[in-house]
Amino acid sequence: MPWHPHLWHPTTQVALHPEPLRVSSAKGAVLQRDDGSSLIDAISSWWVTLHGHSEPSIAAAIAKQAQVMEQVIFANFSHSPAEQLATRLAAHSGLERLFFSDNGSTAVEVALKIAWQFWRNQNNERRQLIAFEGAYHGDTFGAMALGDRSIFTEPYDPLLFDVARVPWPHTHWGDDDVETREAEALKALEAALAIPTAAVILEPLIQGASGMRMVRPEFLRGVEALVRAHGALIIADEVMTGFGRTGALFACQRAGIQPDLMALSKGLTGGFLPMGGTLASEALYQGFISEEPLKTFFHGHSFTANPLGCAAALASLALLEQNPKRFEDFEARHTQHLQTLASLPQVKDVRCQGTMAAFELKCGSTSYLNPVGRQLQKLCLQRGVYIRPLGNVVYLLPPLCISDDQLSNCYRAIGDGIPQIA
Ligand SMILES: *Cc1c(COP(=O)(O)O)cnc(C)c1O
Question: Which one of 292, 322, 352 terminates a domain?
């Protein structure tokens, strides 16, 4: 199947990559190929498919909503699906206000703009932003600027604003100097906070795109204490970690921290529809209420609070609420397989957090361009398993519905494939 003459695929180099695999349907953890073969989707279709593909209750909720009201402008209007979703998310997150957008990058942009303008509205300008080394917050300009510089941002680097950058003391099983690196990172953060800071943004517990780099809850509590002591805001980018991925509904809960702003997307609608949400504290919201028009948050997207997205999100949340054990107990399912993999001589730095498991292949650099990941991907595809390593970092992030047999198949394909890599 050749490249389509009219499509342009994301983060894909046509001159180097194999042609895309065509799929015709998807059910549960399985993608059905045009040629009749099937694949286990071990990465939840780029981390979005939460319960499983074509989950019936979410599909039904969308169909029902589509026959009642598909979309309405959200500036002069409101509606029940948006109100219900905001109420439920507030109860779960401790953040009272929900601002809608369309994807993870815009959810981050909104958090950034709220944090920045909040201080301005108080006539207390704080002009520094702090982010972590290895951070990824999305592909729009503000989100790129907050993210660490990489091959993804390089062409645009001259256009990106500066942020203070602090080390991220990521860890893995058997890491014995993590406490030293955490102390150094906290020291660097404290030094950076000497400059008046609007906000510190972080991916709670796990940095995704830079290689599934996990930190301990203790570190995040240390970060929170320092940020509070200096009066800055905390933005939690839970675009990947939200909705049970780390074993708690939100990673911040598992870490034991309370952010001021939280960016959500990916799993928000169970992976059915593109929707972003930024949760903000009531105190931030109140900071925009004024007779002065300039204190308004002048930001809005055409599809703000799309009723279909809200209906999907409500149905997805209901599934999580009905069966929290499904995400709370997932980590144990990974652990048993990871222990086997950890004994392979080619494997290092094994780590796991809730539904997300990762390890590194010893060969070569940790660069995104390291080809070993692609080699392993090819071997797994031959076994009916779809993974998408980040350079030499191999990870699994399956939908919650994946069966024990399917999960074993994934690990077996990986374990058999590793010794075959050049
Ligand atoms: C995927 C991701 C984003 C960007 O979300 P998009 O929907 O792809 O724009 C932002 N932050 C994190 C942590 C992500 O994993």
Answer: 322
User: Which residue range(s) make up the domain with 318?
Assistant: 59-322
Q: Do residues 293 and 158 both lie within one domain?
A: yes
Alpha-carbon distance of 175 to 358, in angstroms, equals 15
Distance 385 CA to ligand 1 centre (A): 24
CB 171 within 8 A of CB 351: yes
Q: Which residues contact 359 (CB under 8 A, 6 or more apart)?
A: 172, 338, 341, 342, 347, 348, 349, 350, 351, 393, 394, 395
286 and 208 co-located in one domain = yes
Three-class secondary structure of residue 296 per DSSP: coil
| Average confidence (pLDDT) over 368-395 | 94
- For residue 60, report the distance from its CA to the centre of ligand 1, in Å: 26
Query: If you ran DSSP here, which 8-state letter would residue 295 be given?
Result: G
N- to C-terminal Cα separation, the chain: 27
Dist. CA 137 → ligand 1 center (Å): 6
Number of domains in the chain: 2
Of 141, 261, 265, the residue with max ligand 1 atoms within 8 A of its CB, to mutate for a pocket test, comes to 265
Spatial separation of the C-alpha atoms in residues 296 and 234, rounded to whole Å: 21
We report the CATH number of the domain holding residue 256 as 3.40.640.10
CATH number of the domain within which 346 lies: 3.90.1150.10
108: confidence class by pLDDT, cuts 50, 70, 90:
very high
156 shares its domain with 286: yes
**Stretch 53-69: mean pLDDT:** 98
Pocket of ligand 1 (CB under 6 A): 103-105, 108, 136-138, 203, 208-209, 237, 239-240, 265
Which residue, judged by its Cα, is nearest atom 15 of ligand 1?
Answer: 240
Tell me: pLDDT of 291 over 80: yes
277 contact partners, CB below 8 Å, separation of at least 6: 85, 89, 98, 99, 100, 101, 107, 263, 264, 265, 268, 313
